[in-house]
Each structure stands twice: as C-alpha cells, then as structure tokens.
Design goal:
about 450 residues, alpha/beta, Beta Polymerase, domain 2, six-stranded parallel β-sheet, 14 helices, elongated
Length: about 450
C-alpha cells in the first residue's frame, strides 16, 4: 500500500463552460495519465475525460506535490473553472461521479462505463497502483449498486434522451425526419430516443458508414432508417426537422453551409464536446441551436424526480466511503505487520539453523528438525500476536506514529528519516476537505 495521498482536480459542467471543458480535454485518457506520471514523485494517476468533465487524480507523497502536478495539467484554464480537492474529498467525489450524482442527468447510466474505461486506460498506461486500484474499483462497485438497488436511473437516463425531450419542446417529433450526426455511444442513445419518440425517418451520418450501420438495426423497427457518410451531410441536413450532433470531433462538423436552402423550422441539439455545431449556425433563419448548457431545464426536472433515490445513494456512498477508508487503514497496518513478521522470520530461520548445528549437526533427524521449527514458529506467533492486534487497533484509531515506529523497527527498506507517514484517510499536514480555485455547487 502506497504511503502517499490522493489529490484531484477537475473541470466539469458545474464549474466550467463548454469551451473551458474543450480546452481542458486531453488528447486521450491514456496520454494524460502518462503525462502526469512524468512528474517527479507522482506514483499513480487516473484521468476521466467525457463530454461533461475532465478529472485527474494523482497519488503523491503529499498534497503540495499533487497540487503542483495538477496545476500544470490544467495550465491555461481559468482558475475559477478548476476545482481542486484533497484526499478524502477526492475519494468521495469519485464515488459520487460513478453513482451518477455529478452528471448533467442525475443517475445517467453511461458514466459508469466511462469510469471503467478510464480505469482500463490508466491501468494500461501504468497509472494504477494500490491506492487508485482500491478507489476506482470501489467507485465502480458503488455505481453498480446505485443502479441496481435504487431508482436513480429511472426516467430520462442520458443526454441523448434529454436532447430528444429538448427538441420535442420546439417541434412535434411525431412523423418528423431526424438526423443524428455521429455513431458513438451518445449518438446511439440519441437515435434510440428519437425513434422511441415517433420520428418517421431517422438518418445517421458518420465518418465511417460501416461503423454506423449496426446502430440503425438497434432502433424501433417501425422507423425508416438510413446511414450516410459525412460527405452527404448537406443533402440530409436540409431535409431534417431535428438534428442531434454527437461526434467527439475536435472541430465543428455541422456548419451553416450544410443548411443552405433548408426548408421550414429546424432544431439542432449539439451534444459535442468540443462543439460539433459552428456557433454561427444559430443565426440562420428558422434554425434553433441548443447546446449542453441548454439542457439544464431538462436535467432539473430529472433531478427533482430522482431526489428520493439520490438521498438513498448519498447514504450508500457514506457507507461505502467509510469502508474504503477502513480498507486503506487495514492495508497500512498490514504493511507494518508484514514487515514485522518478515523480520521475525529472518531471525527465526537464523536461530533455528544455529540451534540445529549445535545438536549433532547432520545427525539431527527430520522429526527433530520439525519439532524445533514448530517450536520456533509457535514462539514467533505468540510473541507477535499482541503487537499485531495493537497495530490494527492503531490504524483504526488513526495512530499513525505507532505504525510509523513499527515500520522503522521492522522494515529495513523503510525511510525512517522521511518523517511521519500521512494516514491514507486523513492526511496529517493538509486539511483533507479543502477545495481551492472554485467551489462546487453540489
């Protein structure tokens, strides 16, 4: 178990704008983890990047190192858009993210898959050690419990369905022509939601037609579906009554020239991060463009509907957070206990061999050797039982000086001059629940 602490920083839909989120987004999660691991003294790293959040978690010897690494990671982002948290608050926030309590749509389902994918990316990049292994797997467990044991994900469960509801407030979707730009997870969710809303025709435009083809087979059989390439965007966009864009492209995909000659009112919902729809598109006659910020009214309704379930999930998180803290404590105590037993084992083996050499050397029988070794094992176990119990009690009571002393005494590799180790649940030198740069609006 690492003797470091977790520090985290984030830019999310709660504290940053769409453009700030775009600026904070890394090339990839794995690349971002690799970048953080190049910082001296950063032992572990985990990065979660979605359309609504960019979050980075690091493990270092203290929060000074962690904050410095994260400040560099988010360099160029306005200070008031970045929320930085120390150990306990970082861990609790990660559990809330996986449970869906921090999402635009409270309780939405895809975030838990995104947390899991980010874990796999970080692990492949060498960023997952004992501290983050425990934290992220606990978060995934909490997210799964929240969705199976509460009603947190009933009703509107994704930005795709929120986009459909936003469009339905502007035009009648029954019998409409819908265009979804992008065949990723968000595009799939939007396509299913639009088909369920009764659109007469659904067109999916994607850079790779073959990748989009399976998507249309997964929607309502009564909906007329077509897949086209992005090169045909102008032709299909002019016919569509509603457009949902969700490509993940670095540059806008839908631009004013795609709508030249368009007939009748048109609603466009931009789910892209960065933007998929060029801002000037909103100036065209009879065209209304909505982005992620415009979905707040939909998400507010969902939040109200799920308030009771959210309370249940909060209680669940409190319990699971305490279990995580206890897990860290036990691991830290076990580290000292293991060092103690390893030291005792080295002494026992040496003394057993010395004793046997004095008992006629090679004439000692196998039975006699086993008796001596059993006696030595028994002595070690009996002598170490009380300190083992004391070390576990010390961890439970946050008595880290006792753990530190035990490691100094029994672990030859332990850096005795580094000062007291910080407890994994409550770093000694820094207030564990402080936030800098911005205040989250939970």
């Amino acid at each position: 178990m690492s003797t470091g602490v977790v520090t985290a920083a984030r830019v999310t839909h709660r504290c940053g704008t769409v453009d700030q989120l775009a600026a904070a987004s890394p090339e990839s999660q794995a690349t971002a983890v690799t970048e953080l691991l190049t910082v001296p003294d950063i032992e572990e790293a985990y990065v979660l990047s979605t359309c609504n959040r960019v979050e980075a978690y690091v493990v270092g010897p203290d929060h000074v190192v962690g904050r410095a690494a994260l400040s560099e990671f988010f360099a160029g982002i306005e200070d008031d858009a970045v929320v930085t948290t120390d150990h306990n608050e970082s861990l609790r926030h990660l559990l809330r993210v996986a449970a869906g309590l921090e999402s635009v749509i409270i309780g939405e389902d895809q975030i838990i898959g995104q947390v899991r994918t980010a874990y796999e990316d970080a692990r492949d990049a060498g960023g997952i050690g004992s501290m983050l292994e425990a934290a992220v797997t606990k978060a995934i467990h909490v997210g799964e419990r929240a969705r199976t044991e509460t009603a947190i994900n009933e009703g509107v469960v994704s930005l795709g369905s929120a986009a459909t509801r936003r469009a339905a407030r502007e035009i009648d979707l029954e019998g409409a022509v819908a265009l979804v730009v992008g065949a990723g997870e968000m595009g799939q969710l939007a396509a299913r939601s639009l088909a369920a809303a009764g659109v007469d025709e659904l067109v999916v435009a994607n850079r790779t037609v073959s990748r989009a083809t399976p998507l249309v087979s997964d929607v309502d059989d009564e909906t007329d579906t077509t897949v086209v390439s992005l090169e045909e965007l102008s032709r299909v966009a002019t016919r569509a009554d509603v457009v949902v864009a969700a490509t993940g492209s670095d540059e806008p995909v839908v631009e004013p020239h795609h709508l030249d000659g368009q007939a009748g009112p048109k609603v466009i919902v931009d789910l892209g991060q960065p933007r998929d729809v060029a801002p000037e598109t909103d100036t065209l006659p009879d065209v209304r463009v909505f982005d992620l910020d415009d979905l707040e009214s939909i998400t507010a309704e969902t939040h109200e509907q799920r308030a009771d379930a959210a309370d249940e999930v909060e209680t669940m998180i409190d319990h699971e957070f305490e279990l995580l803290v206890e897990q860290y404590k036990r691991a830290r105590a076990d580290e000292a206990i293991a060092a103690m037993y390893e030291s005792a084992e080295r002494i026992k083996e040496r003394e057993v061999e010395t004793a046997l050499s004095r008992l006629d050397g090679d004439e000692v029988s196998t039975e006699q050797r086993e008796i001596v070794e059993a006696m030595a094992d028994s002595l070690v176990n009996q002598l170490l039982a009380p300190p083992t119990k004391s070390l576990r009690e010390a961890a439970a009571e946050d008595d880290w000086s006792t753990i530190h002393t035990a490691l100094q005494l029994f672990d030859p590799e332990f850096g005795g001059n580094d000062g007291p180790i910080a407890p994994p649940s409550m770093p000694a030198t820094v207030n564990s629940d402080t936030s800098v740069s911005a205040t989250d609006d939970d």
